[in-house]
Amino acid sequence: MERYRFGKGDYKYFRYPLPGVIESVRTATYPHLAKIANRWSDELGSAEEPFPLDHKDFLKRCHQAGQKHAPRSSFTTKPEDTTACTRICTERSLSAATGCHARPARTRLGRREFVLVENGPRAQSHAEVVTVGEGHGIVFTTRYRPVKGSRGNVRVSIRHGVSRVRRGTRYTLGIIYHDAK
């Protein structure tokens, strides 16, 4: 992680077959997230094809687009005094590796202060810090969300990061909903 300036620590990625708990969370939460993503897409007037409401149908779409590799679901370990992304070297969570059929959201489990930064058009960036308890999770958008503006909804870009590890070790499980290229 250091070579990418994400602080000290390790990323471990899962392959198929996924551990049962990850597969269960993906399957159970996907339909709810797809509905939100589709609503946001409508509010922003997007021409993108809606997300299917069944996770298996979404994975079929990924496979048809050549995305057949296991999702980038990960287990992250960060030791004490790791800067992580506190200098707002926040990430947008969408790269060429994810493929064209991206996830509607991402889920993270672990104890931390989670930072979301919104970048609206012609506006100052706005940071929101959310404290997530041990064993709890947070679901967040990977690219943008609609925000009501004076002339209708506008697209606001979202980036995310985490606070410094002050003591102990932070363990995080990231659950991804799509398959990768």
Can you give keywords for this protein?
181 residues; alpha+beta; five-stranded antiparallel β-sheet; 9 strands; 19% helix; four-stranded antiparallel β-sheet
* Class computed from helices, strands and strand pairing: alpha+beta
- Sheet bearing the most strands, described? 5 strands, antiparallel
Q: What separation lies between the terminal Cα atoms?
A: 21 Å
**Tally of helical segments:** 2
Strand arrangement within the widest β-sheet reads 1-2-9-3-6
Principal-axis shape equals globular
Spans of at least 5 consecutive residues whose pLDDT stays below 50 are 84-103
Question: Strand share of the residues?
Answer: 25-35%
How much is the average pLDDT? Answer: 76
Order of helices and strands: EHHEEEEEEEE
Helix content: 10-25%
| Rg | 17 Å
Number of strands: 9
- The number of domains is 1
Structure description:
The protein is α+β, with helices and mostly antiparallel strands and 181 residues long. It has one domain (2-175). It has helices at residues 20-43, 55-64; strands at residues 10-13, 74-78, 106-109, 112-119, 126-132, 137-140, 144-149, 152-162, 170-175. Strands 1-2-9-3-6 form a five-stranded antiparallel β-sheet, with helices on one face. The longest helix has 24 residues, at 20-43. It is globular and about 45 Å long. The model is unreliable at 84-103 (pLDDT under 50).
